[in-house]
Every structure is written in structure tokens, then in C-alpha cells.
Specification:
three-stranded antiparallel beta sheet, 7 helices, alpha+beta, RT_dom, single chain, 259 residues
Amino acid sequence: MAKSLVMAVTMFVGTADADPKKREQVKTMLARTVNPQEVDAMLEGQVPPANRVRESPTFYNNAPFAVGEVVKMVENGTLHVYRPGEGKPKVVNPLGVLNVPKGRLVDNARYVNLFSKRQPFKYETPRKVLNFLREKAYIASWDFKAGYYRILINPPFRKYFGIKVGAVYLHYNALCFGWSEACLLYTLLTQEAAKELRLRATFPVSCYLDDGITGSADFWRCLRAMNFIIKVLTLLGAVFSLLKWHLYGRRKRDPRSGS
């Protein structure tokens, strides 16, 4: 999706209704970097007070990967670098690495999450796929690469998503892994795309975060569905990597049947 989309991405409501377990986790995290007597004061008010938290050990343990990812994100505009005299982010969250060895940078935004309004929502479940996929059917699937980084955070809120790498301060310009609202917003946007596909076509579509799937027992029907999806997603701003896409039908061999 186009990276020009700007969202007002959060509503801070304070910590009065925060999950007690998560509150204790945040208090433990804060106690490592500030005076224990100051911890309770940092959880008061409607918006997160200024705070600086050290990077996660997983960042240093995977430094070559982590620093390389940060450099890429600075180059593509996902991260903003604070220059000398520009100040610092209001909140600096710990930056870590998950899913090693593949690796993913995660902004540990638990402190900010505690002040955010909890908004329950439901994902589409794999069970929906079973309603339209049958054995030996053809499927067409797609996924958005680095989807979170295509959706920009409303500028006044970016100062709450700061990080520090060495002596350099940065903040996220786009959605980041680790922020509780990011999943909700991304799901709402992808569901809009799925809704558009369902309204304008006669084939089923199921979406889960950045993945989508459709299918049919009829090869040509599935091919038409795939072509239509390409057109609609392109109009919405998607750019397809033709080197990674299989734009032709193929059937996987079933090892059980030998066919």
C-alpha cells in the first residue's frame, strides 16, 4: 500500500484501566533505569511522561543484524535520525530483536502501550478459508512486504516511539512491531482492501494481517480472481515483485496419493 497514508494512530487515556499484570511488567522495566521511588509518578497522567530505557540485550547480542536493519529503515524513511541540536524523543523505548535467526526489530513499547486505549478486535480466522477451499483446489495468495512500515504515524505522536542506537536518537515515522495499536490499525486497513475485493468480485477472499488468500476448484476461475486482485491492489498503491510471484497456475503434488 502507498506510504503516503497518514493515520492518527492512538488515543492516550492514562493507566487507570491498564491490565494489572502489564502494569507490573512496566514497573519492573522502569525500575532498571530510574530511581524506584520515581516509578509510580511515571505512570500518572493521561500521556506518557518523558522516559529513557536502555536497549534490550537481544539488540546487542544480534548487533550486526540489528544495526543493519536500522540503517535500512533510516534510508527508506521508516526511522528519523535526531541531528545535533534537534533534541531527543520524549519517550525512548528499548529496541530488541526477535525471531532469530531470521530476525525482526521490535520496539518494546510496553510503557506507551500502558497509556493507550484498549480496543478489542477480531482477526479473520483460518476456519473461514475452509469454507471455500477444497481438496485439490487451486489457490492464489499474496502478502505485503514490511506492511507496517508503509503506514505513517501522525507526526505529533512520533516522539513517543523513540529509540537509541549507541549515542544516536531516532524515532519511528511508521508503525512499529511492539506497539499494541499497530496490529489493530493494520488489520483495519487490510480488511478495507478485502472488503473492496469482495464487493467488486464474485469470489471469496480471506485476509489475515498482511496475508491474503482466495481459491477455487476451477483453474480459470482462480486465475481470473488472481488477475482481478492484482489490478485492485495495484490501484490501492501496491507494487508487485514479479521475481517472487508465480503468475501462473500449478498444482502441488500430493505425496499421499502420488498425484
